[in-house]
Every structure is written in structure tokens, then in C-alpha cells.
Design brief:
Number of strands: 0
Order of helices and strands: HHHHHH
Strand content: under 5%
Helix content: 55-70%
Number of domains: 1
């Protein structure tokens, strides 16, 4: 399974399929389902003004892009996100703008993903990273170039997710 650096999934005609034997408790599933939104929130806090609005919209689009990933896990997480009536997270790790807490949650997610199919685990990690990358690019006031602080966030998030 390959995904571009921009996080765009390969074209796939499959629809989200619920995981038949979920290896996660409700709290663990909430963590996996909330991590993409928390990632957007933390990345958006680094942008301001119009860039912040653009970054937030890019984050929503990046999360929605998970619907077409060739991964049952990613599509199931996106389905969970969209199934929430109010769009809010059911559990919060604390202040959404707290990078240290986001990284701790990402490390926990990486440990949980050890129980997933390796391809699904890799797809989920890449998807979350691509969500952050799209937000950082959109929030940049340098015409899409990623700022040093954003690059640091992306690097640290990648390490926490086990991508580095």
C-alpha cells in the first residue's frame, strides 16, 4: 500500500467496512478516532488569522480524505468521526493546543496499532501524519512552505507515531 507524501490515498473503489473483530476497547477506539481531530487542533494553533481558517479547513479535508484510503481501519475511523452527532470528541486528553499531550496520545496510538493489521497500522499512521502536514502547509504564511516550527511538530509527531 502506498500513499503520497501529501497524504493522498491511492484510488480505491471499496467502502468503509466495519472491523469484524475489533481489537480495541471503547476507550482505545475513541483515542484512535479522536487523534486526527486533536492533531488538527494542535497544528491550527500555530497558524493565525486567515491562515488559521485555511489550516482548519485543510484539516477537515484531510480527515475526510481518509474515506478513500485503501485501509479498513482508516475508513472505519473516519466513519466513526462522521457518525458523531455533534462532531465533538467523546473524550479529551486535555487542552487541545497542548503539543506534549498530543505526542503522548500519538505514542499511545502507536502502541495500540501494534494489534492492527500491519498495512492498516501503517496507513493510519501515515494518514494522521498527512492530516498534520496538510494543516501545516495551509496554515503557513509563506505560500505553502512549511515553517520551522511546523516542521518540528511534524517531525515529533512522526516520531511519536513510529514513522521516523
Amino acid at each position: 500500500m502506498s500513499h503520497s507524501l501529501a497524504g493522498e490515498p491511492p484510488v480505491a473503489g471499496r467502502h468503509a467496512v466495519p472491523l469484524t473483530d475489533p481489537p480495541y476497547s471503547a476507550a482505545e477506539w475513541d483515542l484512535l478516532a479522536n487523534l486526527p481531530s486533536w492533531t488538527v487542533a494542535v497544528a491550527v494553533t500555530q497558524a493565525s488569522g486567515q491562515q488559521g481558517v485555511a489550516a482548519g479547513l485543510a484539516g477537515l479535508e484531510a480527515i475526510a480524505a481518509g474515506r478513500s484510503f485503501d485501509s479498513d481501519l482508516v475508513r472505519a475511523v473516519v466513519a466513526t468521526i462522521y457518525a458523531r452527532h455533534d462532531g465533538s470528541a467523546s473524550a479529551s486528553p486535555g487542552p487541545l493546543a497542548d503539543t506534549a499531550r498530543l505526542l503522548a496520545v500519538a505514542r499511545t496510538a502507536a502502541r495500540l496499532l501494534e494489534r492492527a493489521d500491519p498495512a492498516d497500522s501503517a496507513a493510519y499512521r501515515q494518514w494522521v501524519q498527512s492530516v498534520a502536514a496538510r494543516v501545516c502547509r495551509a496554515g503557513s504564511n509563506r505560500g505553502g512552505a512549511v515553517a520551522r516550527s511546523d516542521r518540528r511538530l511534524l517531525d515529533r509527531l512522526g516520531d511519536a507515531l513510529g514513522l521516523g
